[in-house]
Specification:
The chain has helices at about 5-20, 50-60, 60-75, 95-110, 140-155, 175-190, 205-215, 225-250, 270-280, 330-345, 360-370, 405-415, 415-425, 445-465, 475-480, 490-500, 500-510, 515-535, 550-570; strands at about 35, 45-50, 80-85, 90-95, 125, 160-170, 260, 285-290, 305-310, 320, 350-355, 380-385, 385-390, 395, 430-435. With about 575 residues, it is an alpha/beta fold. Its EC number is 6.1.1.19.
Length: about 575
């Protein structure tokens, strides 16, 4: 049930009546007519821009349209007043019975309240994390993993058919570095001193891989030249690192549907096929790029390369796909990978990249636009850096990882629920400070605690009701006399609950799961405010001594809050708290 959509439907019906009566032209487009919360809650419960957006095409004054529309809307039992404001905005106030009915709907629908069919089961591929398989996931990957996973859950909740995908970057030179690093740990396992030269990975996480190599090969690799062992060790180490990465993701509650190997694109004709598809569109040519803007590097020289006409699809410059020596650029396999995704029939693609990939956005969007003839949109979301703090100081790097803080370091400190929620307390493209002390505080300043505490408070009320012998199951509460929910503080909470379905659709449309975390914090704030008022006004308490019927009506409100918090936390991948300890 989406009350904002229902009231918008009421507005559209009234506008159509005005058309049939000749008060409005027949050919008006109502697509831009909205119904949303007013900027100032004192102005009403909802506001519509109908008169403002229709005035020019209708060749009428906005206030004239608004006043006529107000008369139509006021005839509906759900509308207690329709007031014209300013040049032609229309503010609506709804009857208390509307808010009371929302509570019944929430209790009847459960966590499906707010679930939307907006996506119409369109197929969306969300690619995230996609870290090189050369080490454990670090805190930057953690943010991308949480954001991508929450976005995938949000889109699923909004009616899309979502695939979660991890692109394994196992086709470049970095996996050769991994193999050489693992080989040194293999030598160490055989009693020799490892030679961790500059450029190799120094982390202790490779020690078990070295030991596993010894278990498999004994000492047989020690006297063989690199060209004989490199391929085997590379494959072995990559598989073991991906096992470690899967375990890291599991610690965070992230499960992928697809793991796609970059290596599978090489030597299989798939890169060539993708570039041939672009060539068939006249988008591949041999040419020489202009020198970089600004100071020209000393080693830069004009040379002919194979180029993609990415400028024809919105990029700033054309991009090389093959070097002058005939080898592929890094961009070529990425084109082939996205060609594969387009070929799998997705209606939309989403890539979640780290902040250091900002320069890659336009070229990748250009490639997908060209490959799909503009039919498959690609949205690239960049996740900014995370700064870790503890005891007022930057959190030290992990010896196990060698030079960074790992995902497991973070989860071991605060748990997966806190990690996930905190990572979503800022928009993805804004920097995030993660203070290990503050995220464990039990205060309003800690949004994780504040939201979890609201849910736990509702659970405590239901347990006390059971102890008092009051039925508090959802069916009983949904059937309670909800007309007893009539205090302004109670109705304010009900109004906030009404915003949930609309919020879900906005967050899904904009690909911004942080909006869910923000909403939950606001809802928790309204609930805590009502709870605290009940300390002074006994009539607002959720359990009324000796009055089971009134208690059930008030518990219906509390239970509805818990249902929506549970649904929202489910999208974020956080388990609702049953009690706070």
């Amino acid at each position: 049930m989406n009350l904002f959509s229902e009231i918008r439907g009421l507005v559209l019906d009234a506008l159509q009546q005005m058309q049939s009566e000749g008060a409005l032209p027949e050919d008006l487009n109502f697509d831009n007519v909205t119904v949303e919360p007013p900027r100032d809650p004192a102005h009403g419960d909802m506001a519509t821009n109908a008169a403002m957006v229709l005035a020019k095409p209708a060749n009428l004054k906005p206030r004239d349209i608004a006043e006529a529309l107000a008369g139509k809307l006021a005839a509906d039992d759900r509308i207690t007043s329709a007031e014209v404001a300013g040049p032609g905005f229309l503010n609506l106030r709804l009857a208390p019975s509307v808010w009371q009915g929302i509570l019944s709907a929430i209790l009847s629908e459960g966590t499906d309240y707010g679930r939307s069919g907006m996506g119409q089961r369109q197929r969306v591929n969300v690619e995230y994390v996609s870290a090189n398989p050369t080490g454990p996931l670090h805190v930057g990957h953690t943010r991308g993993a949480v954001f991508g996973d929450a976005l995938a859950s949000l889109l699923d909740y909004a009616g899309y058919d979502v695939t979660r995908e991890y692109y394994i970057n196992d086709g470049g030179a970095q996996v050769d570095v991994l193999a050489r690093s693992a080989y040194e740990r293999y030598r160490e396992a055989n009693g020799l001193s490892p030679e961790i030269a500059e450029g190799l990975y120094p982390g202790d996480y490779l020690i078990p891989i070295g030991e596993a190599l010894k278990e498999k090969y004994g000492a047989t690799l020690l006297d063989r030249p690199e060209e004989e062992w490199l391929s085997e060790v590379r494959e072995f180490a990559t598989e073991r690192m991906m096992d470690l990465i899967r375990e890291d993701l599991a610690q965070l509650g992230v499960t992928m549907d697809v793991f796609f190997s970059e290596k599978s694109l090489y030597g299989t004709g798939r890169i060539e096929a993708a570039l041939a598809a672009l060539d068939d569109k006249g988008l591949i040519y041999e040419g020489v790029l202009e020198p970089p803007k600004g100071k020209t590097p000393e080693d830069w020289e004009p040379r002919e390369q194979t180029l993609f006409k990415s400028t024809e699809h919105g990029d700033d410059v054309d991009r090389p796909v093959k070097k002058s020596d005939g080898s592929w650029t890094y961009f070529a396999p990425d084109i082939a990978y996205h060609y594969d995704k387009v070929s799998r029939g997705y209606d939309a693609l989403i890539d979640v990249f780290g902040a250091d990939h900002g320069g890659y956005v336009k070229r990748m969007k250009a490639a997908v636009s060209a490959l799909s003839d503009g039919k498959v949109p690609l949205d690239i979301k960049l996740t900014q850096l995370v700064k870790l703090w503890k005891n007022g100081e930057p959190f030290k790097m992990s010896k196990r990882a060698g030079n960074f803080v790992t995902l497991r370091d973070v989860v071991d400190q605060v748990g997966p629920d806190v990690t996930r929620f905190v990572m979503l307390t800022r928009k993805n493209d804004a920097p995030l400070d993660f203070d290990f002390d503050k995220v464990l505080e039990q205060s309003r300043e800690n949004p994780v605690f504040y939201v979890q505490y609201a849910h736990a408070r509702v659970m405590s009320v239901l347990r006390r009701a059971a102890e008092a012998g009051i039925d508090a199951d959802e069916a009983t509460l949904a059937a309670a006399d909800l007309s007893k929910i009539d205090h302004e503080a109670e109705l304010a909470v009900a109004r906030k609950l009404t915003e949930w379905p609309r919020l879900v659709e906005i967050a899904a449309r904009t690909h911004e799961p942080h909006r869910v975390a923000f909403y939950l914090y606001e809802l928790a704030g309204d609930f805590h405010a009502l709870w605290n008022r009940g300390n002074d006004e006994t009539s607002l308490r959720f359990l009324q001594d000796g009055d089971a019927a009134t208690s059930q009506s008030k518990m219906a409100l509390a239970r509805a809050v818990a249902v929506v918090i549970s649904a929202g936390l489910g999208i974020l991948g956080v388990t609702p708290a049953q009690e706070m300890r």
